[in-house]
Amino acid sequence: MSPTHAAEVRTLLELLARYSHWLLFVVLEVVSLVLLFQFNHYQRSVWLTTANTAVGHINAMEQEVLHYISLGTINEALTRRNLILEQELEGLQWELRALTHDSTYTERLHARQMRGHDLLPAHIVTNSVTHRDNYITIDRGTADGIEAEMGVVSGTGIVGIVYMTSNHYAVVMPLLNSHSHISCRLRGSSYFGYLNWDGRHPLYATLDDLPRHARIAVGDVVETSGFSSVFPAGIFVGKVVAIEDSDDGLGYKLRVHLGTDLSRLRDVCVVRHTFHDELWQLEQQVQP
User: Fold this and answer.
1) 232-242: pLDDT as tens digits
2) What percent of the chain has pLDDT over 70?
3) Which domain holds residue 21?
4) d(Cα 106, Cα 103) in Å, to the nearest integer?
């Protein structure tokens, strides 16, 4: 060993000897904390709760940065969507005026459709589309009026249903979840079924239980049926791209191209039924 290396080793040993009591303190502190959280349920639960809250705040800040970076793309998509909606609305207004001679009919129709529902804006904190059972976390919770079983929508269609909540966050079960079953119908008809996801492509789902006598064509619009307090009727879901026989051969199952690309989603709205509590209490009274 050269004199230089020997001097460096001697200096290192002197530093270790000088601060040995501090090193011993740190080691003992780490060991005691590990034992405390490993063998005490209360302390472990407090630690996990604190850690989850911290992670939630960090994820929220990360999503804020990503949201700011992607504002250009989002604004372009919203602009295109608004132009399409304005064109569709203009065409509907001309048709309705020709049929009813009442220029306020469209406004009254929309107001009647959304009557009894409020839209609460929220930002997505975490999201996934690659699992069989995906979940979304949003930055709104019970403190903001969010409750389980509320619908979640975006500017391009439905997203999912609130699964559980905390004070400031909520977990949403999206369409891309094997346990998601949402009642939908074909626009302009009374035929309805349940929308399910097969775990494959994040832009496609299956609408089951359509009767054999239903008149269905590729390109038909699928929308919410309104058969629950979760979603009002008429919210866009997607379009039919394929028609197949059901597994039992008694009906049809439709391949639906979803209007909402969950992998690019940043902002959503939670649909709150104004009379949700009253409706829930009434339904509980009639259940056996």
Assistant:
1) 888 889 999 99
2) 64
3) 3-68
4) 7
As a whole number of angstroms, the distance between CA 10 and CA 15 comes to 9
Instruction: Give me the count of residues in the chain.
Output: 288
- For 147-160, what is each residue's pLDDT tens digit? 999 999 887 888 99
Q: Could you tell me if 136 and 180 are in contact, meaning their C-beta atoms sit under 8 angstroms apart? A: no
Banded model confidence at residue 22, pLDDT cuts 50, 70, 90 = confident
Does residue 77 belong to any structural domain of this protein? Answer: no
84 domain-assigned: no
For the chain, report the end-to-end CA distance as a whole number of angstroms. 88
User: Domain total for the chain?
Assistant: 2
Distance CA 154, CA 146 (A): 16
The answer to whether residue 110 sits within a structural domain is no
Q: Is 113 helix (H, G, I), strand (E, B) or coil?
A: helix
Residue 34's Cβ-count burial label (10 Å; 0-12, 13-18, 19+) is exposed
